[in-house]
């Protein structure tokens, strides 16, 4: 399928129809990847909200995190749940379709419509599975740039993202400095630490240890995907998204409602039941091979290494305005990671503002109800637009 080219109003769409337009576009190749492989073409699934103005100056790109997708502010077609960032994107929110032309694209390598391991390899007529080439976060940004070209957007008012989304924002600012007026990086880092890589490896090993994984070949009729391994991977990762204080407040050591302890493999503690639910529900909407590819892309990410080993080099001469936000309870990407980026921006002479917010929610705070985050982002975007 191909996406619309132009604005919804130019196509005679109603005011209501401009919110949450979902499309898949096939972008012709060849598309060269950092790893040396070449894709003949690239499918990108995306949603748009609002209208591109006559000056084409109000476009905002939202970059999603590891387990996110392009359904940023509209109901998910598989789960029926609201979009993953309705607290930030939507009418009256900091990123507002009344003021902005909002684009959110499913990343390259994912499983919600963009090219990835489950896509059909044109050379064989079968799903790529583990024959899909290795990808990087810079590859994801390049694919998004092609989408922006397709939509007629040369310069973005802002690129906004949290976690892995924030890493993509940094890639955009470093790779396309002349196309990004402002960059909002939330709860993120310029590279993965050894601890980050270690947690991802636990998840990958859980998937590959599932007998249903079968070296990634589980897309055939009647095949059962490795849901058990994927669920464990999600459980392990989800622990890193939370804080000890948040878990203690929400669950403590409270037991499930039953008369006696099971002393077996049932979920005795409420926190066990919560994690199991998180794992099982995740398998309804995500592909195990995509999880392997995207976590690996995050682990490879090292913006300084891409620019001669010095992070400031990535932003040399940049006219982009940066806003960085961290959370005091985030131990996955702690405030020290954001400060390192700010120091590099200062060394490069780039305009940067930074704030650490207080929240009990850990890394997931950027997705949850933190009103101060909205005030920071809203104020920053309004200043940039002005």
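Q: What amino acid sequence fits the structure above?
A:
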């Amino acid at each position: 399928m191909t996406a619309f080219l132009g604005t919804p109003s130019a196509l005679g769409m109603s005011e209501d129809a401009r919110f949450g337009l979902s499309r898949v576009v096939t972008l012709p190749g060849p598309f060269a990847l950092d790893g040396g492989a070449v894709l003949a073409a690239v499918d990108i699934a995306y949603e748009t909200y609002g209208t591109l103005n006559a000056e084409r100056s109000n476009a905002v790109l939202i970059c999603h995190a590891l387990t996110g997708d392009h359904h940023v502010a509209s109901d998910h077609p598989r789960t029926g749940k609201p979009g993953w960032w309705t607290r930030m994107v939507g009418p009256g929110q900091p990123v507002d379709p009344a003021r902005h032309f909002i684009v959110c694209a499913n990343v390259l390598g994912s499983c919600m419509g963009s090219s990835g391991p489950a896509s059909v390899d044109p050379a064989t007529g079968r799903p790529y599975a583990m024959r899909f080439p290795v990808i990087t976060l810079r590859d994801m940004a390049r694919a998004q740039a092609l989408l922006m070209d397709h939509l007629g957007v040369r310069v973005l008012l802002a690129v906004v993202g949290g976690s892995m989304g924030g890493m993509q924002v940094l890639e955009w600012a470093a790779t396309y400095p002349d196309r990004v007026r402002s960059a909002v990086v939330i709860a993120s880092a310029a590279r993965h630490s050894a601890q980050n890589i270690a947690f991802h490896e636990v998840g990958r090993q859980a998937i590959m240890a599932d007998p249903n994984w079968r070296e990634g070949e589980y897309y055939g009729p009647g095949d059962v995907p490795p849901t058990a391994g994927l669920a464990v991977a999600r459980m392990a990762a989800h622990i890193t998204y939370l804080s000890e204080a948040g878990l203690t407040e929400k669950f403590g050591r409270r037991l499930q409602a039953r008369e006696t302890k099971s002393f077996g493999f049932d979920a005795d503690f409420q926190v066990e039941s919560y994690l199991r639910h998180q794992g099982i529900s995740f398998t309804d909407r995500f592909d195990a091979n995509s999880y392997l590819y995207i976590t690996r892309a995050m682990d490879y990410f090292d913006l300084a290494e891409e620019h001669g080993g010095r992070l400031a080099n990535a932003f040399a001469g940049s006219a982009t305005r940066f806003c960085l936000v961290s959370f005091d309870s985030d131990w996955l990407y702690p405030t020290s990671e954001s400060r390192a980026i700010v120091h590099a921006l200062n060394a490069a002479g780039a305009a940067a503002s930074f704030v650490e917010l207080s929240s009990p929610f850990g890394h997931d705070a950027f997705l949850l109800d933190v009103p101060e985050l909205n005030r920071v982002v809203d104020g920053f975007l309004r200043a940039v637009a002005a």
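Q: And what stands out in the fold?
A: The domain at 196-295 is CATH 1.10.1740.110 (Rna Polymerase Sigma Factor; Chain: A).
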